[in-house]
Structure formats: structure tokens, C-alpha cells
Amino acid sequence: MASSSIRLLVSDIDGTLITSEKTLTDRTIDAVQQLLHSGIQFAITSSRPPPGLAMYATPLGVTTPLGAYNGGQFCEPTTLRVIAARAIPAAAVAPLVAMIEGAGLQAWVYRGGAWLVRDEEAWHVQHEAEVVQFAPTQVADFGDLDGADAADVVKVVGVSQDHDAVARVEGDIQARLGAMVSATRSQAYYVDVTNPDANKGAVVDYLSQHLGVPHDEIAAIGDGQNDTLMFARVGLSIAMGNGEAEVQHAANVTTAGNDDDGFARAVDQYLLA
What are the structural domain ranges in the chain? Predict the structure, then answer.
């Protein structure tokens, strides 16, 4: 597909837009500005909560809706006002948390604009808080997950240093809850669970309709398994060089790694050439 027909680029954040140190390089910032100046819109999506997207949207001058929680929430880029949301079905929340904790993983529950954890000093909690600039709320329990407290839960995460256990839980959730939820591992140490219509493919669908850009005039770039859901919905798909072989095989083209300005190189080579 000719790059001249692309009107929108949708980008993953971690492992794609930013370096391993979670920073935007000058070259990446310049590449986004060149995109915008050439008339190509730019959007970002991630499993991160809204503040974790805004911290990069602001310096990049993003004006399109932010696809937080892999599309569980869409927010205005400056005010973070929620403009659309897709919660996990209430009936799935209690069994989901029970499966995660029963397997020895931490459960994180994102509800009503809050990130709920049982122990804010547990492994990876403070690191996550620093990375996404979003403070957790420690709770003794998650409330009545068989009742009203199951409403408005946009994401549940299972977290563990035992990567095999995380993979098993992902499979168990998919097998037991089926079409009620979407369960994917964006990192080896956690499984993200959202509404089945909150995935990166659905993010592309939403942005296509909201911005009036046909799917074949959209490009997507990413490094993770969940990014392949975007690849299947766009006219041009770009895998990062740091992505797994399976991710690269799912894309039309592959660029350099995220620590070698792969994002900016892709913009130069495939969109602005």
C-alpha cells in the first residue's frame, strides 16, 4: 500500500513509542510533528490508565481520543474526560478476581477512575505507579463483586513474577469465561482482562468511525501480541524490531527496535517517504 493513502497512524506505547527507559526521544517527537504537518492524524492506545497515556500525549500534541485500557475507556487527550467506556460484564468480575487470586497472582481492579490493590507495597505496584503516573488505592477487599461493586470495572489485571503461572491463568480465564472477557498478556508478568470489545482491534474500529477514516487508510505500529489485533484491521501494519517473531510475521513490514528509534524510522520510511 502506498504511504500517501494513509491518513491516521495508531501507535502502541510501551515497547513501541517509548524506549525501554520509558522516554520519548527527540527523534520520535519530531516524527510525530512531521506526521501532523503532513496531514496524517496520530493516535495512541495502551493497556495503561488514562494518565499513563496523557503523559506522552501532551508533549506529542495528540488531539485524537486516547484509547486507555486497550479501549476500555476513550478519553479526551487534554482533560481526560471519558467519552466512551466498555466495562467488564458485571457477572464476570467476581469469578475473574477469584481465579487470579486462587492461582497466587495479585489482582488489580480498575473501577470508577481508581486503581484498587490489596497491598500497595506488593511486587511491581510502586513501579507501575511511577511508570503510568497513577497512584493505587489500597483496600482491605474489593467489595461486593457479586453486586453493585462489580459495576464500572474497566480492567482487572493478574500480576506475578511467575510467568508460567500468568500464562496458565490467561488460558484458564479464556476457557472459563470465554466470550465474556478479553484476556491478553501485554507483558510476561501480567495478564490484562477487559471487556471483549475492549481490545486494540476495537480501538481501530472506534477511531475509524469517530475520525471518519476508512480502515484501509489507517496504519498501526506495535510490538506485542495484543497489537496484532490492530494489524488485522488496518491498511498498513508495522511491527517493532523488538517484538516477538510471531508479531513481526503478522505485520506488513518491520522496523528497528524501540531503543533504536524504530518508531521514527518507520514514520520516515513508510509514511513520509
Answer: 3-84+198-271, 90-194
CA distances from 65 to 110, 207, 211 (A): 20, 8, 9
pLDDT one-digit tens code per residue, 140-185: 999 999 999 999 999 999 999 999 999 999 999 999 998 999 998 8
90-194: which CATH number, 3.40.50.300, 3.30.70.260, 3.90.550.10, 3.30.1240.10? 3.30.1240.10
| Global pTM exceeds 0.90 | yes
- pLDDT tens for each residue of 1-55: 445 699 999 999 999 999 999 999 999 999 999 999 999 999 999 999 999 999 9
DSSP H helices in the chain: 26-37, 50-60, 90-102, 125-132, 163-177, 200-211, 228-231, 245-250, 262-266
